[in-house]
Design brief:
With 137 residues, this protein is α+β, with helices and mostly antiparallel strands. The chain contains three helices and six strands, in the order ααββαββββ. It has a six-stranded mixed β-sheet. The termini are far apart.
């Protein structure tokens, strides 16, 4: 089972994920994933492997800039080197339009992260998120 140190490492990983997403830092995001990771995001095909995930984040981040804060709802151990985390986030999203037009919206997301511990520590093996509006209370 996971020890408190593992749980804190996973919390730190998810905090780095949030920061990299908010700064649109694709390279930093990719460092958080294992080589054969899978990203399942709204409005996109599933992306398998870091290069496909790079392309997916390129699409996501080129069309919108978000300021996201998420809460970790749970971190659950499933084996000594596997765990999952469930998050809920709230974002202000600025959609980039043609020219100087922009649209700003509020949205919320459910996130499910399947994490694997390897030689480099905890990394994201699978990431799936879905948009929910408005955020449930």
């Amino acid at each position: 089972m996971l020890v408190s140190q593992d749980i804190e490492e996973i919390r730190t990983l998810l905090t780095h994920y949030q920061g990299a997403q908010n700064t649109s830092n694709i390279d930093e995001l990719l460092e958080l994933y294992i080589t054969d990771a899978v990203l399942v995001a709204p409005r996109l095909q599933s992306a398998t492997g870091r290069e496909a995930i790079r392309e997916a984040y390129g699409t996501i981040l080129s069309s919108a800039k978000s300021d996201t804060a998420f809460n970790i709802e749970e971190i659950v151990p499933t084996a000594p080197d596997w765990a999952f985390a469930r998050t809920i986030s709230e974002s202000t999203v600025e959609f980039k339009g043609k020219g100087k037009s922009k649209t700003v919206e509020r949205e919320a997301n459910h996130g499910l992260f399947i994490l694997r511990k390897g030689l480099e520590g905890w990394k994201i093996a699978r990431c799936c998120f879905t948009i929910i509006v408005p955020r449930p209370r």
